[in-house]
C-alpha cells in the first residue's frame, strides 16, 4: 500500500521508529511487519543507540493489522510475520518505549505490549479485538499480555474485545504513565534521555533478568562484567565527585 511504511530517525542516543499508514490509522501491512525486525537488527548493534521509541504518525499509534493481509496472518498462526515482529521487538537488547496516542488496538496493542514501557496520552484507547472477529490471539501474544496486566485483566480484554481508555490502562498496568497529549513527546524525550545516561551494562542486564532470558551462567557473566568493565567504579567516583558518570561499556554485537 502506497504510503505505508516504518521510518527511523536517530537523534543522539535515541532512535524513533514511526508507524506510518495514515489511510488506515497506521495499521500494519505485511510489508511493515516484515520491515520491523530488519530495522531492529540494524539498530541493535549500533553503539550510539541507547534506547528505541516506537510511535505512530499523527493522532494514532496503530489500529492493528491491515485486514487486507488477514488471510496471510491467519494461515501462519503463531508463526506469522506479526508474531515474528513482536518477538523481535520483545527480545531487543536495549530499552524500548511505546509513545501512544489515539488508537492502540489489535496489532498495535501487540506491539505496545512487546515494548518495555508504555507512555500514553490521555486520548489513547486500547483494545484486543479477536473475539469480535472470531480469531484466536497468538499464544505468545496472549501470554505476554497476561504477564503484563494479570490473568483477569487479560481475560477481560480478550473476552469482551472492548476498548478501554488510558486511565483504565494505567490502573491495570497496560500503560505506565498517562499525561496530556501536548506533554507526551516531551515526557518521552525526558524518559529516554534519562535511560541513555544510565549504565548500559546495568540496564541491559536488568532487561534480560526481568524478561527471564538470563539463566545462572548468564547472570554470573553479568556480575563478572561489573568487575571487569569498571562501570561500578566509575559510578561511585562520579557520585563522590558530584558529576555525571561517564559509562563506557557497550554490549558486544554478538550478545
UniProtKB/TrEMBL annotation:
For the biological process aspect of GO, one term held by this record is: fatty acid beta-oxidation
Coiled-coil intervals, chain numbering:
none
- Keywords recorded for this protein, A-Z: Isomerase
Question: One GO MF term, please?
Answer: isomerase activity
Q: Which domain of life is it from?
A: Bacteria
Q: Which InterPro entries match?
A: ClpP/crotonase-like_dom_sf, Enoyl-CoA_hyd/isom_CS, Enoyl-CoA_hydra/iso
Task: Tell me the PANTHER family matching this sequence.
Answer: ENOYL-COA HYDRATASE ECHA18 (ENOYL HYDRASE) (UNSATURATED ACYL-COA HYDRATASE) (CROTONASE)-RELATED (PTHR11941:SF127), ENOYL-COA HYDRATASE-RELATED (PTHR11941)
Query: What's this protein's name?
Result: Putative enoyl-CoA hydratase/isomerase
Q: Which organism does this record belong to?
A: Micromonospora lupini str. Lupac 08
